[in-house]
Amino acid sequence: MNSKPIRVLVVDDSAFMRASLARALQADGDIVVVETAPDPLAAREAIKVHQPDVLTLDVEMPKMDGLEFLERLMRLRPMPVVMVSTLTAQGADVSLAALELVTLPSRLVESVIAASVVLAALNNLFPVIDQRRWAMAFAFGLIHGFGFASVLTDLGLPRDALVSSLFGFNLGVELGQLAIVAVFLPLAFALRASRFYRRIVFTGGSVVVVILAAVWLLERALNLKLL
User: Fold this and answer.
1) How far apart are the first and last CA of the chain?
2) Which helix (DSSP H) or strand (DSSP E) does residue 2 occupy?
3) Beta bridge mates, 216
4) What is the pLDDT of residues 103-130, one digit of tens each?
5) Residues 138, 87: contact at Cβ < 8 Å?
6) Residue 225, CB half-sphere, CA atoms under 13 Å: how many?
7) Cα angle value 18/39/149 (rounded, 5°)
8) E strand or H helix at 180, and its extent?
9) Axis-axis angle for helices 205-222, 106-125 (nearest 10)
10) What is the pTM of this model?
């Protein structure tokens, strides 16, 4: 056991989550939860009083959302923060990148995105990952989020408008994805047993995606102009 335990402040608007996190953390003898706070304003006062080593932070909270509080905290009093949220992987890394807490070269991000598209399409043609596709979707969503984040950062939005823009962007992306799924999924389900769907839409579409994504990968990875 360490001679000096890690002091943690838990910030979450749910009393159940605060209690659950505190109980789970304190099960480790090297961790002590110095305080819990229901919102960022209470957390600000608790930080002044308890000087925690680490903060666990929810995203959606009253009075001030967690992302705005995180941006202010990193500017005024940098400290380790563990984000605890129900956001998707894509939404989480869009947030981190847009707030400039994580930055990656755009060429690297686009190359990895293209590679992930190639792998996903190849998996349709030659299934390797079958039982754990959700894990693949999670990982690829995490990668693609950094690509979406570059759109926000390139707009040069003022810092005071970034959090609201980030919220609107994430909401728009999620609603757009749901709209596409709502239109395509019933059609795909209805046609799933037909030869047209299996040969043309599924197999043919996957081949086309592999070719286009491979060209994109070569262009970005090798800095070429093929199309």
Assistant:
1) 59
2) none
3) none
4) 667 778 788 888 989 998 998 899 887 7
5) no
6) 0
7) 100
8) helix 159-191
9) 150
10) 0.53
